[in-house]
Structure formats: structure tokens, C-alpha cells
Write a structure and sequence with these properties.
There is one protein chain. This protein has helices at about 15-25, 85-90, 130-135; strands at about 5-10, 35, 40-45, 55-60, 70-80, 95-100, 110-115, 120-125. By secondary structure, the protein is of the alpha+beta class. The protein has one domain (about 5-135): 2,3-Dihydroxybiphenyl 1,2-Dioxygenase, domain 1, CATH 3.10.180.10.
């Protein structure tokens, strides 16, 4: 099994969630950023010093990060050598695609694990240099998920 690079929480209040993780676990954070995907504006932040990282995301109702039912664990994130090939392989192995960002010009997918009530995120490794530049410039290249 390859190393995951982050754990993500979808939250109703990004500042409150990150403050709690800082107070309880001593987690330090990069500056939060605003983002936009499709019809959704969101706020996102990654912890400093990973991998692995904590990701905390606050999205609006109806978005892939909807937390109107309460803040929750959302996904575990892996890099994929090729997100297009990987998403079909995970679906064949029993993790159906819940959300595909590729039609929006992005390169990640969420795959539902119904027994866990969570998801796996695959992110195309081609965007890893930009991720490292934005969130962790000192991080070494991270491995990809081995999907036979």
C-alpha cells in the first residue's frame, strides 16, 4: 500500500476547526485560501510540516464538501500516476466515483467507501509540484498509490 498524503475534514467553520486541532494536537497551519470550483466557493487549508497533512475545507450546501449535517471526516488523499486510469480502477474494485472534478478542469476524484462512510481522493501527480509550492515547499516528492 502506498502512503497517503493527507486526511481531510469537511467543516462548518474552518477557523474553529483549525483552532481546535491547534489547541488539542499542536497542529500548525499554512494561511487559509479561498477557492472556486463549478458553482461553489470554498475555503481550504493544509497543515504545515507534512506529509501527511491535515486538510480542512469549508464548502457551501450542495457542494462536494457540504457539512450542513455537521463537520465530519471527508476523505483520505492519495496521489495517482494517472487520475483518469486510477478512477476507473478504484471503481472496478468497489469504490464508486462520487465526484469527478475533471469536467471542471481539475484533476481529482472522490470515491465512496460506504462501509466507512468516507471517501478516497485521487489526485493526479502532475499537480504535485504546485501543491508542494503552495502548501509545503520543503516537502520531498510524495509517492503515488499503487493501483494494480
Amino acid at each position: 500500500m502506498s502512503d497517503f498524503y493527507h486526511l481531510c475534514f469537511a467543516v462548518t467553520d474552518l477557523d474553529r476547526a483549525t483552532d481546535e486541532l491547534s489547541a488539542v494536537l499542536g497542529v500548525t497551519w499554512n494561511p487559509a485560501r479561498d477557492g472556486h470550483l463549478g458553482d461553489w466557493d470554498y475555503r481550504i487549508v493544509f497543515s504545515a510540516g507534512g506529509p501527511p497533512f491535515f486538510e480542512v475545507i469549508e464548502g457551501p450546501p450542495g457542494s462536494p464538501w457540504d457539512a450542513t449535517g455537521g463537520s465530519h471526516f471527508h476523505h483520505i488523499g492519495y496521489w495517482a500516476d494517472d487520475v483518469h486510469t486510477g478512477k476507473h480502477a478504484l471503481a472496478r474494485r468497489g469504490a464508486p466515483i462520487e465526484f469527478d472534478s475533471c469536467p471542471y478542469g481539475r484533476s481529482f476524484t472522490y470515491h465512496r467507501l460506504p462501509g466507512l462512510g468516507a471517501r478516497i481522493e485521487l489526485v493526479d501527480v502532475s499537480v504535485q509540484p504546485g501543491f508542494r509550492e503552495t502548501w509545503s515547499p520543503a516537502a520531498a516528492p510524495m509517492p503515488t498509490l499503487d493501483i494494480p
